[in-house]
Q: What sequence folds into this?
């Protein structure tokens, strides 16, 4: 199921598109039109932090974790209007198309450098590499370091903090030390960010964090904890989403050699191929929501406070919306997938993620011979996470011939 949930998703779409799942104690919404409707329904709330604290944290433990949950609750993705509207507008002023375009050349340089090392090991030495660890993880990490204006050598620290925060954010398996680990990582990351904020107040620079500080100081509408929370959100999404999306895309292309060769031979096809990879095997299959009121939704009575799983991975293969949805079509032009969500919570970082994927995958396709898995596909280990969809390791080699 972790490797290939799409058969199960197809059954849900066909037989029970809005289903109560007792094990997860959540409604599973799988049909495209229902997922889109849920994204745009004012009665369906994005807050996961308040309910988590009230249901998963013992009353006697809440005081020592209060600051952690206060910070996480300020993440833009968990807020509702009017706070969400205010925060999104401010972040949008810093996360501009011009800033993303500025990062494009840096991303291409990073991709070319990483690919050159892969070429040496794969071609010159006839070896095997872990494409995830050696390319898909460091590329977004170095881009994030550039975005925050921090030294590249701080990338591993940022990644570790993102991994720890993900224990709550990405729906990991139960871990008795989960809250302690997240609180510790959050405290370290917060201290690191406060030092940067102080520096940028004194000496502004041309990066996203400095821009957030400037917006806050000029308009007096973004407090320091909101700057910190927003930076944590950008880090978490920027690392995990892009690395999983890129690894899944390469895994998909390697499984379809003809599509791989077509994209490698036609640079203009790469952006189209990226969109199809995001639809066919995106970096996540579930977005979690809560019912903010009693709802009559798609013929089901959903009680206030109920958990709702929007199965984007199922919606992206709904035959009522996509022609031959289980086929990977590298040149699919009409492709309104919901991998980045819709409505007011549509992913602000989607243009950045697309840019990184086009640069990263395009570089691999054009600078290396065609790659193939160095193990059987069934041997790949997939994340044991509810929210994320991706592999823990992606060993590859130059394809035979």
A:
């Amino acid at each position: 199921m972790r490797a290939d949930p799409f058969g199960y998703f197809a059954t849900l779409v066909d037989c029970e598109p809005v289903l109560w799942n007792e094990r997860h104690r959540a409604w599973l919404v799988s049909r495209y039109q229902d997922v889109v409707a849920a994204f745009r329904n004012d009665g369906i709330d994005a807050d996961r932090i308040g309910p988590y604290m009230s249901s998963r944290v013992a009353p006697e433990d809440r005081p020592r974790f209060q600051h952690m949950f206060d910070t996480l609750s300020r993440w833009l993705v968990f807020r509702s209007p009017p706070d969400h509207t205010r925060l999104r507008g401010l972040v949008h002023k810093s996360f501009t198309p011009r800033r993303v375009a500025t990062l494009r050349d840096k991303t291409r340089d990073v991709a070319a450098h990483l690919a050159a090392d892969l070429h040496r090991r794969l071609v010159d030495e006839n070896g095997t590499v872990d494409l995830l660890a050696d390319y898909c993880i460091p590329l977004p990490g170095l881009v994030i370091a550039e975005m925050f204006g921090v030294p590249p050598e701080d990338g591993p620290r940022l990644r570790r903090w993102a991994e720890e925060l993900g224990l709550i954010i990405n729906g990991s398996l139960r871990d008795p030390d989960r809250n302690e680990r997240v609180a510790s990582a959050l405290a370290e990351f917060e201290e690191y960010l406060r030092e940067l904020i102080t520096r940028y107040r004194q000496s502004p620079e041309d990066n996203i964090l400095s821009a957030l500080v400037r917006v806050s100081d000029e308009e007096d509408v973004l407090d320091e904890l909101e700057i910190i929370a927003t930076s944590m959100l950008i880090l978490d999404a920027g690392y995990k989403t892009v690395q999983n999306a890129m690894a899944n895309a390469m895994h998909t292309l390697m499984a379809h050699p003809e599509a791989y060769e077509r994209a490698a031979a036609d640079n203009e096809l790469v952006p189209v191929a990226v969109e199809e990879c995001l639809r066919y095997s995106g970096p996540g299959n579930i977005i979690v929501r809560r019912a903010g009121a009693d709802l009559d939704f798609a013929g089901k009575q959903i009680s206030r406070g109920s958990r709702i799983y929007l199965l984007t991975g199922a919606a992206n293969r709904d035959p009522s919306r996509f022609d031959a949805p289980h086929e990977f079509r590298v040149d699919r032009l009409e492709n309104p997938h919901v991998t980045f969500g819709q409505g007011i919570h549509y992913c602000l970082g989607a243009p950045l993620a697309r840019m990184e994927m086009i640069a990263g995958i395009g570089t691999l396709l054009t600078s290396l011979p065609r790659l193939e898995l160095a193990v059987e596909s069934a041997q790949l280990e997939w994340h044991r996470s509810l929210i994320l969809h991706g592999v823990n390791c992606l060993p590859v080699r130059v394809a035979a011939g």
Q: What stands out?
A: The beta strands are 18-21, 26-29, 44-45, 129-130, 287-291, 295-297, 300-302, 307-310, 371-373, 395-398. The radius of gyration is 21 Å. DSSP finds 16 helices and ten strands in the chain. The mean pLDDT is 90.
